[in-house]
Amino acid sequence: MKILFIEVDTEAAWTVASLGPGAVAPYVRQQGHEASFFRARVHHTVRDVLAEIRRHQPDILGFSLVTKQWQRARKMVAEIRREVDIPVIAGGLHPTFSPEEVLSNPGFDYVCLGEGEESTQALLDTLEAGQPTEGIDGIWTRGGQRPSMRAPFEPIDDLPFMDRAVLDEPEGVIHMNTQRGCPFVCTYCAARMWNELYEKEGRFYGRRRSHQNVLQELETIRANGPLRWVNFLDDIFTLDREWVASFTPLYKKHIGVGFSVLSRVDTIDERMVHMLADAGCKMITYGVESGSERVRKRILHRPMTNERIAQVMDWTHAAGIMAINNYMIGLPGETRDDLDQTVALASQIKQFDFAYYVFYPYPGTKLFQTCKEQGLLPPDYLELPANHRGSILRLKHLTNADIQEYYDKMTALRMRICLAREPTKSMEDQPELVAHVSRVATTF
């Protein structure tokens, strides 16, 4: 069987393709199937996609989707199926948490729930044999009953390495996962809900690769091309201190190129920051999310203090690592006072840069359910695109004008922080930087 994965871009500046096909493609090839890839950039029309389908002649199309990609993907699939009679499978976060919605749209035949390697292989095997697809663990067939979840793949080190061509990475810039699963209960994030999906069926999702397996993949990449930078995409790279303490000296010895990680301020200490720096870490992204301790504790379930956040920023700065922080605006239950605290904290702590988003309730998260229960979602929310510049919610304490005001305040603050890196230069002397900050602030 031949599967063609279609990557659905929604922005002109999209750094890396969905990781799902990068993991599934080499696995199904290992089992005797064929897999190819086409990236539908923003400027590509459905005619362009159809031309690729006719060129590759696949037996099935695969889409890995987050909510942001859903609106374009469903329109694309509907148009494709009017022209070509070819089955379609969708996997990833959005189909996993909104499978009924996906299967109710024209053109989608199957949804993959959870991990895709073994489930996709089982579907391809079944289709190739001409057998009914109903009853495959992890594969929900259109018109059929919800299937059981397939057990997470074990041992994770036995999975083949990611297909770098499918990931469509910039030359020499590598994106890596060393683990699957996150134990924290942040209400805005689907990572924990992914775990809970498996736990409902008595299965444990969290696993981490061995040091040797991660290093072997990096060494294989370097043997076949340039290796200049590694972005570790684990939700929390610093989750297991012993794993990090053993990994960092090995990475420094055998790989030695710069890298970045994601972390939480309550999973890292000063010693670990310096271990990461010594190994070549140049950037750590932290989820600050709000400057209001009330919002973090009661709404987001992230009970770290502002004092702790400032302390970790000091450690990161002292170690020579760039701290990049994430913030949200327009959360359910948030007030103007909470947003004032966010602007104040972002103004005071030592951070190299930050990103900021208007909150969007993703299906599968606790906050999505909260929004639904409190009547904050508009009747047509399923038709609205995921927009991080304005809110789709009918919030009780904030108006759209409030959100716009604080979004603009964060934009102005980010401009000041970025310009302050070269204090001897004015805005007129740094037009590219000014254009970049302005462009990001107006990109949906």
Describe the protein's architecture and organization.
- It is a single chain.
- The chain is α/β, with parallel strands linked by helices and about 450 residues long.
- The chain folds into 2 domains: about 1-140, 3-Layer(aba) Sandwich (Rossmann fold); about 170-440, TIM Barrel (Alpha-Beta Barrel), CATH 3.20.20.70.
- Helix content is about 40%, strand content about 15%.
- The chain has 17 helices and 14 strands.
- The protein has helices at about 20-30, 45-55, 65-85, 95, 100-105, 115-130, 165, 190-200, 210-225, 240-255, 270-280, 295-300, 305-320, 335-350, 365-375, 400-420, 430-440; strands spanning about 1-10, 35-40, 60-65, 90, 110, 140, 175, 180, 205-210, 230, 260-265, 280-290, 320-330, 355-360.
- The strands form 3 sheets. Strands 2-1-3-4-5-6 form a 6-stranded mixed sheet, sandwiched between helices. A 6-stranded parallel sheet has the order 7-10-11-12-13-14.
- Helix 14 links the parallel strand 13 (about 320-330) and strand 14.
- It starts with a strand and ends with a helix.
